[in-house]
Design brief:
about 325 residues; mainly beta; Jelly Rolls; ten-stranded mixed β-sheet; seven-stranded antiparallel β-sheet; 21 strands; dioxygenase activity
Length: about 325
């Protein structure tokens, strides 16, 4: 590496995408990623929505799956052994396949830097007996939703826990925490969605919490999985230090469900599995919009609007939504 590049790397305060286990906890929200290079700098929570191309007055803005950056890093970067030449239990040749919705690690695109307080959304597929070694985080609210498989989490607060499908966990990184994430199963891949949100205040005391998965909780209805810690009426133990919520639903084929996105609110919606037709209707403006989503597609939605999800896939649809205060235009 050239001397100039080294200086840039050392000076860069960047999001920790996949740091090596030897990295020390950073005082900021992120540190340099020695394996994959420097990602984009953290943007303040007040960054205007106009910083990305989707922040307009349109009710819906689709983010197609084929527009996402796909990362398949070398296994040695994170303490994993070589990829096997063949393994009947592996569904991908590389140990990890990540779809980045926003700038992260080696991917840097100013047009996709964040959406309101949602700074990171990574859709990770981890093969059997592989994972991320111990690495640090600070000053981020980190939520992880398990789509399939089992995720084993261990951290410097003394937590060790394995969560299965539909499980949700949060971690307030605050002043600094170290953790690892592994798929310890030797036959089944693990897929999870990891989301980072900018906290309302910095240098909080680190904290961890979770909730086990329950299909009935979200079957043909919306389940409120993550809420603001200030929302004392929310019936979930998973609460973060930000005005943001995570909702999930699983609809059977032919079923519909609605969600009222209030004025001054916005949402980032990810189709996890299956297919749906999403219709947004605004009574105030008399306008409407519609998008068809399949697995890995996303869309941004802006209130006030009634969002109607119709499951069109033969296997139904599995949807995750991050709802938050609208970023100022």
């Amino acid at each position: 590496m050239r001397a100039e590049s080294c200086l840039v790397l050392l000076a860069c305060i960047c999001l920790l995408g996949r740091a090596s286990s030897a990295a020390a906890p950073a005082a900021d929200a992120c540190v340099a990623d020695s394996a994959r290079g420097c990602a984009t700098s953290e943007l303040p929570a007040s960054s205007p929505a106009s910083a990305h191309p989707y922040a307009t007055m349109a009710l819906l803005r689709k983010v197609p799956a084929d527009s996402l950056f796909v990362s398949e890093p070398d296994p040695s970067w994170f303490g994993n052994g070589p990829n096997p030449s063949s393994n009947p239990h592996w569904t991908n040749k590389n140990w990890l396949k990540s779809r980045f919705h926003f700038s992260f690690a080696e991917y840097h695109d100013r047009a996709r830097s964040q959406f309101g307080v949602l700074r990171v959304m990574n859709d990770d597929l981890v093969q059997p007996v592989r994972g991320f070694g111990t690495h640090p985080h600070a000053n981020m609210e980190i939520c992880t939703y398990i789509v399939s498989g089992d995720l084993t989490h261990q951290d410097s607060m003394g937590t060790r826990e394995t969560l299965g499908p539909r499980g949700i966990q949060f971690m307030t990184a605050g002043t600094g925490v170290r953790h690892s994430e592994f798929n310890t199963d030797d036959t089944h891949p693990l897929r999870f969605i990891q989301m980072w949100m900018v906290p309302r205040s910095r240098n909080l005391e680190p904290n961890y919490g979770s909730m086990v998965g329950d299909r009935e909780r979200q079957h043909n209805k919306w389940a409120h999985l993550v809420a603001d810690v200030k929302n004392t009426s929310a019936d979930t133990p998973v609460k973060i230090n930000q005005d943001a919520n995570i909702w999930v639903t699983e609809l059977d084929e032919g079923k519909e469900s609605t969600f009222e996105l209030r004025e001054g609110r916005q949402a980032y919606i990810l189709c996890l599995e299956g297919a749906t037709t999403l219709t947004a209707a605004s009574a105030a403006s008399g306008t409407s919009a519609q998008e068809k989503l399949v697995a890995h597609d996303a869309t941004q939605a802006f209130g006030a609007a009634t969002l109607t999800f119709a499951a069109t896939g033969s296997e139904g649809v599995h949807v995750l939504m991050v709802e938050m205060a609208a970023a100022p235009l």
